[in-house]
Amino acid sequence: xxxxxxxxxxxxxxxxxxxxxxxxxxxxxxxxxxxxxxxxxxxxxxxxxxxxxxxxxxxxxxxxxxxxxxxxxxxxxxxxxxxxxxxxxxxxxxxxxxxxxxxxxxxxxxxxxxxxxxxxxxxxxxxxxxxxxxxxxxxxxx
Length: 142
Fold this sequence. Notes:
Helix content is 46%, strand content 7%. It has 5 helices and 4 strands, in the order H-H-H-H-E-E-H-E-E. A two-stranded antiparallel sheet has the order 1-2. A two-stranded antiparallel sheet has the order 3-4. Helix 3 crosses helix 4 (56-74).
């Protein structure tokens, strides 16, 4: 019996670093570190869609879990309460700053997740804008 080869499981992505780079809207992250980032729910939702169009809520869940792990490892009450240095984004954070970042990411990613899970359908029939190859500003009521 021939077995179907299975692909290895995908390695989980470090979304926190990629998210920080994605949300660096005010300046270059290599210059200003996390101060360059806008972690608003809309930016996080956009990041999630850019990573997984089909299941963006899964990315938001991963972000929440990774933020919890960051806080439990490097936050002020974590295993290593000394903080962390992240050279890729030019940031040295104390344990307290890790707490603030992790709490912000968890809160904002939860809101982003609710944005992504909102049912967009409003039960209306579609309106056809193009008629005979040309745009029409009024609906044909024949």
